[in-house]
Write a structure and sequence with these properties.
By secondary structure, the chain is an all-alpha fold. It has a single domain, classed as lambda repressor-like DNA-binding domains (434 Repressor (Amino-terminal Domain), Orthogonal Bundle), CATH 1.10.260. The chain is built from 5 helices and no strands. Helix 2 (about 25-30) packs across helix 3.
């Protein structure tokens, strides 16, 4: 299933969801991506201005990839409002 993230908070929610789906703690994901647990927490809460390199390391640790495409014209509803 594809996930769309248009904000830092939405991307953090996706990271959290996949991390939990894989049964990882924040500390484990941090270790796999050479980051501190506090950094993972900050990203998952949408509170971090993480670099692209950091985000790519996290996505790789979760066995995910980044896909860039034109923005869809769908609803402006925030993903957090759906769940």
């Amino acid at each position: 299933m594809d996930n769309i993230a248009r904000t830092q908070k939405q991307l953090g929610s996706i990271v959290r969801r996949y991390r939990k789906h894989k049964g990882m703690s924040q500390g484990t994901l941090g270790s796999k991506s050479s980051l501190r647990q506090a950094t993972i927490s900050s990203i998952e809460n949408g509170e971090s201005d993480a670099s692209l390199t950091t985000m790519m390391d996290i996505l790789a640790a979760l066995d995910l990839e980044l896909v860039v495409r034109p923005r869809s014209k769908g609803s402006d509803t925030k993903i957090e409002d759906i769940f």
